[in-house]
Each structure stands twice: as C-alpha cells, then as structure tokens.
Design brief:
By secondary structure, the protein is α/β, with parallel strands linked by helices. The chain has two domains: 136 residues, 3-Layer(aba) Sandwich (D-Maltodextrin-Binding Protein, domain 2); 94 residues, D-Maltodextrin-Binding Protein, domain 2 (3-Layer(aba) Sandwich), CATH 3.40.190.10. The protein contains nine helices and eight strands. Strands 2-1-3-8-4-7-5-6 form an eight-stranded mixed beta sheet, with helices on both faces. The protein starts with a strand and ends in a 23-residue tail after the last helix.
C-alpha cells in the first residue's frame, strides 16, 4: 500500500483522522504531520509531504505553483472581525478604521488587510491574538470563523468575544496534492466524492464540531456532491 504523507496546519489537526480514513479507503497508508500554518504550505511546496488539507482555493490559485492539483471544494470558510463583547457598539466600517491584528500566515486575512489598506499587523500564534484582544492591546482580530470559535470555546473565551457581521471574506477550501503524486488524484477524488454523496463527510464534521463545542449550524459544509471540475464531468 503506497504511503500518503498528509500535512495539516495546527488548527486543522482535528480533521486528520477523517482524512486518514479517506486515504485508507482510497488505497493509501496515511502518514500525518501537523505544522504551523506557514510551514504546512512550505512542506508541500518542497515535496516533503504529498497532500495539504483545507487550504483556501483562491489563495492556492494566487500563490501556489500552477501545477499543484486541487481536490474540492470540500468546505467553506468565512472571515470576521472579532471584538470583546464589552467593547463599544460600532459598525463594521468603524472597526476597520482601528488598529487590527491577524494570524501570521493566514493569507486571506493578509490579503483583505492589504487590499483595503488597513492598519493591521500579523501576529505569530492564535493564542497571542486573543491574549492581545483580552488585554486591550488590540481592539479587534481578523480571523476565520471556525478556527476562531474553536479556540475561543476551548479556552473559555466564547462568552467574552463576539464576531461582527457581515463577514469580511468568504472562500472555499480544497485539498492540495503535490504534482509528483498526480497518480494519486483519481482514487482520492473518487473517495472524497463518495464521502460527500453518502453523508459521511457531513457526519464526520458534525462529530468534530461536537468535540470542539461548536454549533452544528455553522453552515460551512459544502453543497456539492462532486469535486471533479465541471468541465471534466460527463453530461
């Protein structure tokens, strides 16, 4: 059974069990690695791992080499401003005029801040983001909803922090396969599609949500039943 080396950023570590089950069903022996967000990408680009999980599709298209193979979308994501519940009530546009912080390596947050010319600073670790917020050293955090909520619930901060509607950005998440493993694409895609169709993907995510104390109605799960590009599907 060929080995499939799978990388996840630390925030996506809870998903590795489900991805490993998919890999085994596709005929591979999974070997998993958890890295900080930037290193996860770099390990894939260097060919030290074969598959990176749950990367934003728009970012893959923008900054990854064009020969990388994507399987998806398999998930949705949304970015928000997070502030203290005790903070003054302001419109989102007013919060965006404040000094902001975001996770270093989160390319979506960085791109949003750059495109909108925000006064925003990258911070190395997610715990540091929310320590700065709680200490009043930053008025607001730019973060992705699922990762932020999981961290806040795990650390007992969810009753002290709120998100500001509407979302700052939305995207779809994909699996990224190194081109040296192009022969792995078809069996992986087939099994991912099977999980999407038969409900195991949604069931697996609901189990992750329950363990993390997240609401089941996050509405981040995909509506698609096939990851095959539309141009390649049979009529």
């Amino acid at each position: 059974m060929p080995e499939l080396r799978i990388a996840a950023s630390d925030a996506n570590a809870p998903v590795l069990g489900m991805i490993s089950s998919i890999a085994k069903e596709a005929g591979f022996e999974p070997k998993t690695f958890v890295f900080p967000i930037v290193r996860s990408r770099n390990e894939l680009l260097a060919g030290n791992v074969d598959l990176e999980i749950l990367r934003a599709n728009s970012i893959v298209k923008a900054i990854y080499p064009k020969n990388m193979i994507t399987i998806g979308p398999v998930m949705n994501t949304r970015g928000y401003l997070f502030v203290l519940k005790s903070a003054p009530t302001r419109k989102r546009e007013d919060w965006l005029r404040q000094p902001l912080i975001y996770l270093n390596g989160n390319s979506q947050s960085e791109r949003f801040a750059t495109e909108h010319q925000l006064d925003a600073k990258a911070i190395g670790q997610r715990p540091s983001l929310y320590k700065m917020l709680m200490a009043g050293r930053a008025p607001a955090v730019i973060d992705e909803e699922r990762y932020a909520l999981a961290y806040l619930v795990a650390n007992g901060l969810d009753q002290q922090v709120r998100k500001i509607e509407p979302p700052l950005f939305e995207d779809q998440l994909v699996l990224v396969l190194h081109p040296s493993k192009a022969s792995f694409e078809a069996p992986l895609r087939q099994v991912v599609d099977r999980w999407l169709r038969d409900g195991r993907w949604v069931e697996g995510w609901h189990e992750i949500y329950k363990k993390q104390g997240l609401p089941l109605d996050l509405n981040l799960l995909p509506q698609v039943q096939s990851t095959e590009p539309a141009s390649a599907r049979r009529p």
